Amino acid sequence: MQINITNHVSEKLDELATVLENDNNLLITSPTDSGKTFAIVKYASLNRDKRIAFLMPTQALVDNVKIGYEGKEQNNIRCGYSKKWVQEYQDSNFICTTYDSYKFFEDDFDMVIVDEAHQLAGGGDYRNVPVSSILDIKSKLVLLTATPEVIELLPNFKKVEFVKTSKAKRTVSIIESDIKAKRTAISIIEKQKPNTLLILRIQDKQLIDHLHTLYSRDKNIVVLYSADVQQMEAHQDLDLYRQTKKGVIPKDVDILLCTSILDAGVSLEVSRNVEAWAISDYFMPNPIDMIQLYARVRTSSMYQMNLTIIGSFGVYEIDSSALPNGMNSSQLSMKMSQRYNEYSQIDFESYVGLLSYYNIQYQVINFKQGDVAKAKYAGKLKPVKIAKNLSNFKYEYDGIVHLCKNKGYENWLAIIEGKDIISSKSNRIVSSIYLDLQKAVDFNIYFGFFITEQYRKNVFIPLADACDSNTSSIIFRKVLSELLIGYNMHEGDKFTMILTNYNRLNTSQKKSIKTVSSLLYDGRKWNSSTIRLERLPKCIYVDMYLNNFIETKGTKVA
User: Fold this and answer.
1) Which of 147, 259, 423, 516 has the fewest other C-beta atoms within 10 Å?
2) Is 0.90 surpassed by the pTM of this model?
3) What's the CA gap between 127 and 340, in Å, rounded?
4) What average pLDDT score do residues 150-178 get?
């Protein structure tokens, strides 16, 4: 479901109310800087008969809501955290507290709304207990975020998207570098531009403390990361620290040194332009975090934030497969965390593709020479390069040659016999590609379907899964039969498929049906009761693949 807005969610309060009063658990997405918090507070103030819990990942966010709304006219919200605070406000109808403090409440709310809900995945490893308790909530659960990656894979949540009709474009700079974060940070500080606020976002508290010690005599520096109050307030100006924690950075602050705590939703009120650097020693900083970080200075501000991202790209593509079934909440929390952390290890195309999806343009900078080149990457081996040049790996290549010859698929081998020379030894990625190709030959999945400009696991896996589901699921076979009704039609012919049975499938089965359909038809609107499909030109490789299904009915494709 999609709801268009011009700037703020509050423009569509009636639609929001209708959505929230639906019985389903909800995943509501809305862009950064679209007033999600205000809209929720407004909804609660108009529905005082409902008990609503509004959960935040950090104390700073709860404090911001408290400053902005608690005690104001028409608002009935109570904001705080800790077991003692919960005991005092246990019976309040509308509370705002942290993920960690919610466990002290009885689970008898009409609705629990989780703000910055992507943090359920981002923090699933180090805050497993509170995330698990949220996943176990029996009340109606509403997940609210601008970046639904990973959590959108949770089962049994209806997705509702608030979409801005006009989107502001921003540009980040990306530097691929294996230079240590310490050396990089020192170089950036030494070259700080005059009259700018410098933000260094580094996931290393010891390095942050070291930089603070090095430069605090000459510059006003605020340190911000998760720690107890005494530790954070020691050795830094208390007034500057406390204002910064609230999101108001005084003009006296020269440098803000922080961890990912800054990504978690606090809007920054600044008094000059900002040069922000996200630095990693190993892989790239997580792109989901970067999308959130870039929104900390609002587009409506008279000041701008330039963001530069430094690290090394990985070799993986984004894993969008469904989260495994049958896990308890603790296991699911850890699995989500694993998926979330894998985003730091994705390849260049996947990384910038995600940024582009959120309307963030990019320029890639050669760190040593300082020149700027648009989107050209020649770093670590990507899966597609390995797949296209598998002939460099004798054991794996010989195995695929043998399988292809046995089935008469020798002409498929040209796809994996590239001319690039790879001196690397076989590794985990090579082995994974080898297993995929074995299964592809077994299931008649033409290599060219998924080895294109990228190694498209998101195509291969659904096609392979379709073969498994066809033998194990009666309802899947029924939907597949409905899909293949138009197989013998001519190019350009159209037919309407009823989606009643399709809508009974699970998420991965739906993905398989849509992927099989994409080989045969043009038609993408699968979220209604019917879909109009137009026959694509016939292809011999599609026919080979479809024999997996049509042979089982006694009719082999010619």
Assistant:
1) 423
2) no
3) 14
4) 85
